[in-house]
Amino acid sequence: MSDAVRLVEIRDVPLDPAEILALVEDPAAGGISMFVGTVRDNDQDKNVTGLQYSAHPTAADKMREICERIAATHDVIKVAAVHRVGDLDIGGLAVVVAVSTGHRGEAFAACKELIDTIKAETPIWKHQLFTDGSTEWVGTP
């Protein structure tokens, strides 16, 4: 397990970007990059009223594996990732990831790869609720 991985969690309570930022700060870091995913009010030309996220019991383990991989393949000093489950309103924070590295370019690259890989590989599913009463599951197998 890498010392670079500071936090990986799936939470059913609101997320705090300041907490995640504090976890990746380091005197050796020349760059910190953070991504905060929020619930938007629309998708595919439909109005969204909210989301429900659910996760497989192995989701946190998969996210940790991804964080370890990013730390090993980039010049990462520290990395943290949290994802929300449960009911989220418009504007709610769904995911917060951050990395610190020696240089800004590497921070941007590592953070982008981190969030893209979490979205692609972590068994977390989004249930979108639309204003017309319809719903849609996103990310299910």
TrEMBL record:
Pfam families: MoaE (PF02391). It comes from the Bacteria. This is Molybdenum cofactor biosynthesis protein MoaE.
